[in-house]
Model the fold of this input.
Amino acid sequence: MRTSRIRTTALAAVTAALALGLTACGGADGDSKAAGGNNAARTAQSRSASDGDGKGAAEQIESKSTTVGAQQCRGDELLVTAVHRFAGQQGDHLLVTASNEGTKPCWVTSYPAVKLGDAAAVLPHSKKDNPGGDKRITLRPGGKVYSAVNLFDYGSRHQTAQSLAIALRGADGHQNPYYSVVMKGEKQRFSWNEADVLNWSTEKPYDF
Done:
């Protein structure tokens, strides 16, 4: 009898311990699934908060850190190219592309100062341009920005060239030193009676 009572008491103690363990872990199978669902929901909420607008917190911090302390782009760290597009058609223009070939982020603002061919006159800013050109656009290493020289050729007394000179503008609008840019592409020669320039942009102009 004593042996039977001892075994019964021990079995009851083990059963009570198992029940206590299940309660601490969220209960039996149904409660365990509910707890797992709650954990998944917390994980999803955490990921959603981290992602924000498609960027994780780490990426947002990295994005901000690349712009802090960035200096104005210089001509020697930018690769600038020009391509004649829509030659002889409506929308005839020179696409200007500037790429940051340096190892640090830098910024550009406003629109480039441009002289076509041997002309000494600096082209004006386009009156049809979008506002906001005074904002700084930061280029990470390898990043690109675009501008365009709008060409208007009325067929008489026009000028012809196949190169241009470009200068970056500072935050105060001051022009930095000019340097030559040679045209690329098939139709490098272009003509104009009048021309103007668009703001720098992260998207190519006239790519509809």
Remarks:
- Residues 66 and 80 are 22 Å apart (CA to CA).
- Confidence is low (pLDDT under 50) at residues 1-66.
- The helical segments are 2-24, 29-51, 57-67.
